[in-house]
Structures are given as C-alpha cells and as structure tokens.
Amino acid sequence: MARLASYVKRDFLREHIVQIAYVVAGVALFFVFLAATFPYAEVLSSVLAPEGLEISARDQAMSFPFGVRMTGVRLTGLGDAHPVVESQDVRLTPSMLSFLTGSPGVNLKASLYGGVLWLEARRHGNLIAVDFDLENVQPGHYPALRQLGASFVGVVSAHGRLELSPDDITADHGSITISGSGIAVRAIRGMTPVRLGEVHAVAALEHGKLTLRSAHTSGADLMLSGRGVVMLARNLPESAMAIKFELRPSPAARSRLAFLLGLLPHPPGPTPYLLSGTLGAPTLG
Predict the structure, then answer these.
(1) What is the chain's mean pLDDT, rounded?
(2) pTM metric for this prediction
(3) Do 10 and 73 fall into the same domain?
C-alpha cells in the first residue's frame, strides 16, 4: 500500500505540475505585490508625526526581493526646510511578523554619517514600538556642527527599545544604551578640544521621565561620572533637567585646559556639579 501511495503521489505531481507552478508563482507574486504596495510612508508618518517630523526622498525604487530603496532621504520638522537628519541610502522592508499580527510594521536600514542605523517600527496596541541599533556613526559629519564651528571626533554607537504614544508622553517607556570611542569635542572654532576618550551611558524612559542611570568617560582628558533625570516636554527644548556629575581632569589636562576649567562654578574634584534648567536654556551650578 505504501508503494502504491508513492506512485499515486508521483502521478499527481506529474499531472498537476503546471497548476502547482502557477500556485507557487501566484503566492510569490502576492508577496511581491504586498511588499510593493505596503504603506511605508503611512507607518513612518505615524511614528514621526507626534514629534512634529516628516520624511522626504529624492528618489524611490523597488528593492529586490521585497521592499523599497530610497535615496536622498531628509528628515525635517513640519514646515521646515532644514533637515534634522539626512541619509543618502535608506532601505525599507515590511516586517514579516506584522503580516501575521495584523499590526503594520517596517524594517529600516540607513547609511548615517559614516555609520549604519537598523530600526524596526510597528504598532503595539495604542503605542509605536521601536527597536534600533546604531553602529559607528561619526557625529563630526553632521553639517549643523560644522556650521556652528563646533567639531566632534570619534564614533558613537547605541541600541535600545522604545514604546511611544502619539498622544500621551507619560505613556512612553523604554531603554537606551550609548557608547563611544575616541571622543573629542570642541564647542566653537579656535577653542582647545576636550578629549573624553571612551564614553558609556545608560538611560531609561518611563512616564515622561528620562532617567540617566549612569554616564561615565575614561582614558583621556576628563574622567566624568554622572546621573540624573530629564522631565520630557512635548516641545523638547522646554524639558526640565537635573543632572549631577563629577569631573576629574588628568594632570596634563589641568594645564592644557586651564582656561576652560577656570570657567566652571568651582574647581573640579569630589564636589559634584548640577546641570539644571531646561534643554533649551541649561544652567550649571
């Protein structure tokens, strides 16, 4: 009987090979069509609109086998021509899990200032869930810094998960980890650069409060360690903050950065500094 069943299966496949091929091709075309017509812009807009942002691209084309590739991508404020972020190459693909759950989602891979950003955004109930991984970005390539005369040397990486509400900032929650290496910054042209070396920071977001659990630098001019909170406002520059940190310069930095250190409220040491005020108008005490 087993042998007879085997022959029957072979005969069935031979007799219906064309129909089977059509079915397979139809399923493949269905997924290609689904990917091609997937509402990428709508999903991205649902993530960006609550923050007052919009996205535009110079060109868009299909990316085999599924998804869209965009070039000359600009992230701007609503009604603002100046880009917040620019990427020359962005690839968007539908999150396959979203097909099964019924929640639209997209995967994004973007070249970003010498590094790469991977991001997945999808709906999770009334929230937008975002998982991201940022690798080896060079903030010194950011045009706005050069326009201000500032400089930033080194590479920065970050990863985290956020769940954001379009309407209620107190419903936002998540976590972020940031690391950097070879970091050196200069606030204005002509100023002595400050070498921070290795940088590591961990933050958590909950109920509209961003808690800086730890931040420290090592291996260069300044050893910095701090923690604090930022109470986020819908208008980000109005967010109030209270961050305490200690600053310990290396012996060489005490002389090389003497002018900058002299501008601090008190000499560096075990007594902490307090960074307060708002993100748009900070004060140091």
Answers:
(1) 77
(2) 0.75
(3) no
